[in-house]
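Kindly review both lines to help learners:
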Amino acid sequence: PKIIATFKEEFPALDMSISGDSAWNIQRKIIAGDIDIGIISGAIPAGLDSHHLLRDEVVACVHRYHPLAVKRCAPVRDLLNIPLVLFKKGYYLRTVVDNLAAQEGIEPTIMAETNLSSLVKGLVKEELGLAFLLKMAACNDPDIITLSCDPPVLLDLSIAWKKDATLSPANRAFVNFLVKEVDEYYMLTQAASTFPLP
């Protein structure tokens, strides 16, 4: 939201329409020409061009009084054996969790499924289960504790558009702006982790 707000400040004459959806639906809509550009996860399918934005860690999220809240890291197998709050099938993060469970031979207990990240976090805060989220989406909530997975789970995010399509000047401006903002964010977070602030 902050990046979009800053973009609107710099380009007030440009109109934007924003919608949230699963990575699969976003890919399908771009290929069909229903939307111009979108943020997607994982491998880039045929029919799309893209620019890699960043790689983020998938973390386990628990409420602050959960027994695991005192840990920094836990084995994936242990995390998958806790009741889960998951995104619905079709979301790339759900596919990641389903694949981890299959690799571990675990049939997880699913407490809730939703396509709303705010509901996922709300259910975690109400102590109804553990959720897997991108670190950037979970790290600023004081009621949610994040744990790294062992082994680490990483996810790539890219901005994508229809292959061989010429982006309009407005879309090209947004892509360039987003790439610049994400690059600056990434450099700042790397610097902060290398040189922690007092």
Notes: The mean pLDDT is 89. The longest strand covers residues 144-162.
